[in-house]
Amino acid sequence: MLLVEKPQPGVAVVTFNRPEAMNALSRALRNALRQAIKELDSDPQVKVIVLTGAGERAFTAGLDLKELGTDGLYPANATEPEENPARAVLACAKPIIGAINGVAITGGFEVALACDVLICSTNARFADTHARVGITPGWGLSQKLSRVIGPYRAKELSLTGNFLDAATAYEWGLVNRVVEPAELMPAALKLAAEMAGVEADMLITYKAMIDDGYALPLGEGLELEHARSLAHNAAVTPEMVAARRQAVQARGRSQG
User: Fold this and answer.
1) Could you read off the pLDDT of 55-110 as tens digits, one per residue?
2) Is 151 exposed, middle or buried (0-12, 13-18, 19+ CB in 10 A)?
3) Which residues pair with 127 in a beta bridge?
4) Phi-psi region for residue 52, left (φ > 0), alpha (ψ -120 to 50) or beta?
């Protein structure tokens, strides 16, 4: 129900593989995701992770409603990464690219929002149906969505349960780019390879600086950046800068 592949150096692809159930997040799948992310996070050969869903219908439709009939709402309020897939994604120190192949609904929307970068196919659609089901979100949607697209647009989505198509998601700044379905994984893997060209410790350090600072008021975020920059840059030698400068210049010429 969860596939883990390493198609190219430095990159792992994790795929929700329950297409017959719209990749619904059963308890077993949530546990498998937490374990896979934990193992990849500690794997020195992996720098970047791509998270996607099998098929073209769904990235993930959220919690398995059949299980909710017996488990109750506990999984929706859980904070442990083995029960809360958004926490499992957020706990990863390495960048995670969400390749959104189909619908990302409610809990699936929250998992998508936990990723660091979102690329979606033209088949992708997003919906928050919490209000229509009569429950409140517990995996971060009510707070993170408004910070990404603004409170007015977030309220429009969450208080109607309406679907947001891929083109509008891009226009609203929810996703980085939209591609044709056949181009989704190539685009995600290309971006992952570009990230994997950066040293692993820098990916982790810079991601944490952005995330931790974004959670603070601007003044405190600037102080955090200053403190971490002093600590990190103290270990950088002129020789290291010179070597990397040559690599950056060569990359710039190849892209120009």
Assistant:
1) 989 999 998 877 766 665 555 566 666 678 999 999 999 999 999 999 999 999 99
2) exposed
3) 105
4) beta
- Token duo for residue 255: 């892209």
A 10 A CB-CB count for 126 gives 28
For 50, the enclosing helix (H) or strand (E) is strand 46-53
Nearest to 204 by CA among 239, 184, 177, 228: 228
Q: Indicate if the pLDDT at residue 11 is higher than 60.
A: yes
The Cα 100–Cα 166 span in angstroms is 10
Question: Cα separation of 108 and 25, whole Å?
Answer: 8
Task: Answer for the pair 178, 170: CB distance below 8 angstroms, yes or no.
Answer: yes
| Residue 113, beta-bridge partner list | none
Domains, the chain: 2-196 (3.90.226.10), 216-255 (no CATH)
Which of 53, 40, 38 minimizes the C-alpha distance to 2?
A: 53
Q: What are the φ and ψ backbone dihedral angles of 10, each rounded to 5 degrees? A: 80, 0
**What is the total residue count of the chain?**
256
